[in-house]
């Protein structure tokens, strides 16, 4: 299947080829053994990020910075995608996981929804940073989507856009005007607020992340619920999600529960045949998609969060999965013929090893880079690397009491872009990624 996928990527047009060449879509973990660790983390004299020797960082954007549109950088920076705009420019499209009573930095213009009596746009949505690829100078940053709630994660598309997902199911109630719980699309080339169109056929649920298989155009989605499902959306027209499609949920026969909370259910490393359960009424006004899916045989996952498409396979994190409830990572291989395959790739057994993994991406050397997202009395959130052999190691430590989010690589694989959630800080980290 991987060989077929490589042939496909060579044969596709420039959009898919650019994605395959960029850090926004990298090879699967099985293709590069790499190193087991970059060494111990060294204290940052500036008190921001501890990194191994040979790595450095720079801050690109922070909460309250003035933006090009007259607004300021909002808080709660979450999922993010990197895009090559051509002509030496990059775009970072960045989510903001904000609730209706929080500050959106002065968002205005086109908006999906507004506060009912004031018609002020709801503060969730996205901002876009346009960078000089050579210097990483921020040339412009601006609101690119407004009027949504809790834009948590999302995913890049092969046609150059960001799918931004609402992790919220508020309904029109006299305080807000519309129902929420949707996926929206933001072209990386946007120069201002886009027309916000909810893709209702993709389902109304507690969305987390999305990724697109470039071979088929199928979109995979995670659900941040303790009894969540994993979904796929088969579009009626490949690359045109607004034209509708079919929503399904992942099922592993004989394994109704992959959370392993009782220490059994889904064995690590073994591959399992997967099938997909059709779901009707995807707009789900009663927030019951996961319940209807489970009743039809779909498998439960514990807080599905980060989701990234590698070459021929997707990886997704389940934040509280596993016998220790510290996190799991699954690997899904779509098949051109026959049943798809699913593997429990990693399950944490201790806080020191890995604690509540959330957003993730694939590094140039084939390792996973996972953002930790836990809030305890002594918050210590790391970026974790995970080798192709399933060994976790510390890659970076945030010196702030906040989570990491939105990890993605530049097209040349030199820079890892990542967010600190609150206060918003978008940073770029460089080092020997190919080691």
Can you describe what's shown?
The protein has about 425 residues and is mainly β. It has a domain of about 140 residues. Helix content is about 5%, strand content about 40%. It has 3 helices and 26 strands. The chain has a 9-stranded antiparallel β-sheet, with no helix packed on it. Strands 1-2-23-22-21-20 form a 6-stranded antiparallel β-sheet, with no helix packed on it. The chain has a 4-stranded antiparallel β-sheet with strand order 3-26-25-24, with no helix packed on it. Strand 22 and strand 23 form a beta hairpin. It is globular and about 55 Å long.
- Ends: how far apart? 27 Å
Instruction: Label the structural class.
Output: mainly beta
Radius of gyration: 20 Å
Biggest sheet strand order reads: 11-12-13-14-15-19-18-17-16
Helix content: under 10%
Total number of helices: 3
Please provide the ordered H/E string of secondary-structure elements.
HHEEEEEEEEEEEEEEEHEEEEEEEEEEE
Note the beta-strand portion: 35-45%
The parts where pLDDT drops under 50 for at least 5 residues are 1-34
Summarize model confidence as the mean pLDDT. 91
Main sheet overview: 9 strands, antiparallel
Give the overall silhouette.
Answer: globular
Total E-strand runs: 26
